[in-house]
Structure formats: structure tokens, C-alpha cells
Specification:
Elements lengths: L1 H45 L15 H4 L29 E3 L11 E2 L5 E4 L4 E7 L9 E3 L4 E2 L5 E7 L2 E6 L3 E6 L5 E5 L1 E2 L4 E2 L3 E6 L5 E5 L6 E2 L6 E2 H11 L4 E7 L4 E9 L2 E6 L5 E6 L4 E6 L23 E5 L4 E8 L5 E8 L3 H5 L3 H8 L2 H8 L4 E6 L5 E7 L8 E7 L2 E6 L5 E5 L1
Antiparallel strand pairs: 1-29, 2-3, 3-4, 4-5, 4-6, 7-8, 8-9, 9-10, 11-12, 13-14, 14-17, 15-16, 17-18, 19-20, 20-21, 21-22, 23-24, 24-25, 25-26, 27-28, 28-29
Helix pairs in contact: 1-5, 3-5
């Protein structure tokens, strides 16, 4: 009986001890959870997601915040799709190409013989030959031969004879011989001693072979943590959350093989295109929904001002705004055969940058949640705007909900056809103008 009594006493003691531990745990668990969560949030607020690392979000001054979507000097939100920008469904008439083979080709190049060239997000070059079909239907056949430009994320490219000039956001400015597949790295840094640039994005060539190209940010394109590829849309969103203005317009001189900085302090430098007469070069400033114009030589203002409205005549080395307050987020720009330009609006406007401008630590915290919140932060549509040679909008083409054509990142006009790159999706498309 004594043994049973001692055993019962010990059992009661253990039960009481466990009850006490449970009571203490229930009392302290909320506080412990809050403390752990606070430590995690504090750590996240001091560093951004890769590739920014220990660089936290930067303060954004009121003057720049006023240029964001919804700001007093920025694009209107909701976008005012009226006049030239009136919504339509013209891109619904585009023909989709290679939706099973090509993923994330920012633009479409056209070789002198009419072949199409595409460069997917993994670095593979696809070539397609035009096919004659009854009734004049648009058709192209993919070649089985493919070149590879190496690891990284190729973005804008330009066909020049037998060479394909490429901006690879990881490696820099390079070119690929379309016959042999040989690759030559042209530039990965500026100045002497060399100062590397990290995010080559888009380019254009002049008649001398000089290459004008953009570097979007001082930080390289971000690796997608879930899908494993270099994700330029994620890189763009991280740059926006960071709040830096380290985008640059660069010029590579083939004679000296040196790269010079023409313009810096750009909020995510993107598309690049030279004017028809070579007097200036346009560079897209994506985060402020506008296109800047850098003058390569003194403007000819005998017609009453550059834009037809009088005012000071720009001189070589000066910068002005070609077009601003766009109704969508601008990406690539290319010169049209008539001397105007095609400007791709890759996504609808968002008011988030304006609302988050005053909260650098909140922007830093959100950078860690980007893979999950990005689909909700960035809308979908297809949109391209035609500008005249002075940068004035003359027409716009849309797929309002992006159900047929979406994430148009660049447009190339050749022979009455408009070839559309697709930054975030599968395949490319072509529209008969």
C-alpha cells in the first residue's frame, strides 16, 4: 500500500509540474512569438532581399516622389485613357508565335533576310524563317539550330549584319556572330580604373558602330528564389523598393573599345533609341514613367524650338524630357521606319511607389515578400504607343486585360508588321499594321 501511495504521489507531482509548465508556456508564448517576429522583422528592415543584401531602402525626397504615379507631377492614376491614348483592342488581332518554345524574349529582331531572332530568358537564341502560306497568312518556322550566349539574363538586342548585339544584365554588353556562334564581350565596365556596371538592359547602334546602351541599376538582376532564373521583373521591383537612382546611359566606342557615361542618376534606365538624324538618344526612365532625351550635338531650332513650342535650344550634353506622364509603365523603345518611335508599356500603372515613398523601412521589409506579393502588385495588359519624331504620341494599341497579348516589352516595325517582345510570358507576337 505504501508503494502504491508513493507512486500516486509521484504521478500527481508530475501532473502538477506539467500543468505548471503548460500554464507558463501559455502565458509566455504570445510574448515569445511577438519577440521572435519582432526580431525577424527588425532584421528584414535592416537589409533588402538579394542582390541588395545589406543595402536597405533609401529615403526618397518629395520632389522625386511628386513624379511618381499619382503625384502632382507624375502620371495620373487611374490612367486617363483618352484622346490618343483611348483604350482599344487592336492587339487582339496579333498572331501569337512560338508559345511552346520561347519564354521571356524581351524583343524580336529581324535579320536582313527577314528571319526572326529571339533570345529567351535562359540565353538561347532562336531563329525563325518566314513561310509562304495561302491567303498571305503570317507564318514562321523555327530553325533547329540554336546559339547560346551563356548564363545570365539577356534583355535588349539589336541585329547588325551578321552580328547580334546583346545587353546581358549579368555579363554586360556582348555580341554574337550569327554564323559561327562566337561570342565577344565588348564591355562590362566604364572608365579607368574600370568601374563595373551591373545591369545592362537595352541598346541601339549608330552608323559608326558605336553602341548606346543603358545600365538600369548598380545592383545586378535578381535571381528568382522559387523558379531559379534571373528575373528582370523582380530586379525592377527591387530597384523600385530600394529607391535608388543609379541608372545610367552609356556609350561604347568600337575604335577605342572604351565605354563612357553619358547620363547618370536615372530611376531605372531602360529602353534606348537614337533619333533618325543621330542628334539625340532617348532613354526610358521606367520608375518615373517618362522618356529622357540626351543631346549628342546642338539642336537645330530654326523651326521654332525642338518641340515646336519655342524656348531654349538644347546643346550637346544637355538632357530634357521627350515625353512624360505616360499611361503605363514604359519599357523598350525603338525607332520606326518613318523616324518616329514605338514605346512599349509593359504593365499598367500602380500607385504603390507613391504611397511607399516616405517609408524606406517598410519598402525594405516588402522586398522579402516580393515573390508572393508581386503578382498582386503588378497588373497585366498589352500596350504599345507610337510616337512621332518629336516624341508626341500619335496612336496607341492595346489588349486591355492581357488575355491575348501581355507584358509587351519592345516593338519592332519591319515591312508593315509590328513584332512584339514578351518579357514575362511565353512566345512573341506579330501584328499586321
Amino acid at each position: 500500500g505504501k508503494r502504491e501511495s508513493k507512486h500516486c504521489s509521484a504521478s500527481v507531482a508530475w501532473v502538477e509540474l506539467l500543468s505548471l509548465c503548460a500554464w507558463v508556456l501559455m502565458r509566455t508564448l504570445p510574448a515569445l512569438t511577438i519577440a521572435l517576429l519582432a526580431a525577424f522583422v527588425h532584421r528584414c528592415c535592416l537589409r533588402m532581399a538579394d542582390p541588395f543584401g545589406d543595402v536597405a531602402g533609401l529615403p526618397i525626397d518629395e520632389a522625386r516622389a511628386a513624379l511618381f504615379t499619382g503625384g502632382p507631377n507624375g502620371s495620373a492614376f487611374p490612367a486617363a485613357l483618352v484622346g490618343v491614348f483611348e483604350s482599344n483592342r487592336r492587339l487582339r488581332g496579333a498572331t501569337l508565335l512560338f508559345t511552346e518554345e520561347v519564354v521571356g524574349s524581351e524583343c524580336v529582331g529581324v535579320a536582313p533576310n527577314g528571319d526572326l531572332l529571339m533570345l529567351d530568358r535562359n540565353g538561347f537564341v532562336f531563329r525563325a524563317t518566314p513561310q509562304q502560306r495561302k491567303g498571305g497568312a503570317l507564318a514562321y518556322e523555327l530553325s533547329k539550330e540554336r546559339h547560346y550566349v551563356g548564363p545570365g539574363r539577356p534583355l535588349g538586342f539589336h541585329v547588325a549584319g551578321e552580328w547580334l548585339y546583346v545587353c546581358c544584365s549579368l555579363k554586360g554588353l556582348l555580341r554574337l556572330h550569327l554564323g559561327s556562334g562566337a561570342i565577344e564581350l565588348l564591355s562590362g565596365a566604364t572608365g579607368s580604373p574600370p568601374s563595373p556596371f551591373a545591369y545592362a538592359n537595352d541598346l541601339d547602334l549608330d552608323t559608326s558602330g558605336a553602341v548606346y546602351f543603358s545600365s538600369s541599376s548598380d545592383h545586378p538582376v535578381a535571381l528568382h528564389p522559387l523558379a531559379g532564373f534571373y528575373d528582370t521583373m523582380r530586379g525592377y521591383l527591387l530597384t523600385s523598393l530600394h529607391g535608388g537612382t543609379t541608372g545610367r546611359l552609356l556609350r561604347y566606342d568600337p575604335a577605342s573599345r572604351r565605354t563612357a557615361v553619358l547620363l547618370e542618376g536615372i530611376s531605372y534606365a531602360n529602353g534606348v533609341a537614337l533619333s533618325a538624324d543621330g542628334a539625340w538618344v532617348a532613354v526610358v526612365e521606367t520608375n518615373l514613367n517618362r522618356v529622357l532625351r540626351f543631346w549628342l550635338r546642338d539642336a537645330d531650332c530654326r523651326g521654332g524650338g525642338v518641340g515646336g513650342g519655342g524656348g531654349a535650344c538644347p546643346r550637346a550634353g544637355e538632357t530634357d524630357v521627350l515625353i512624360d506622364k505616360l499611361p503605363g509603365i514604359p519599357d523598350g523603345i525603338s525607332r520606326a521606319p518613318d523616324g518616329g518611335f514605338w514605346l512599349a508599356l509593359v504593365a499598367p500603372l500602380s500607385p504603390l511607389p507613391r504611397h511607399l515613398a516616405a517609408w524606406p523601412r517598410l519598402r525594405t521589409l516588402l522586398s522579402h515578400l516580393l515573390p508572393w506579393v508581386a503578382p498582386f502588385a503588378v497588373g497585366s495588359w498589352g500596350a504599345v504607343v507610337k510616337l512621332d519624331e518629336r516624341g508626341r504620341p500619335v496612336e496607341a494599341l492595346y489588349d486591355p486585360d492581357g488575355s491575348h497579348v501581355a507584358t509587351v516589352s519592345a516593338a519592332t516595325e519591319v515591312g508593315g508588321r509590328l513584332f512584339l517582345g514578351n518579357l514575362g510570358g511565353r512566345g512573341v507576337s506579330v501584328l499586321q499594321l
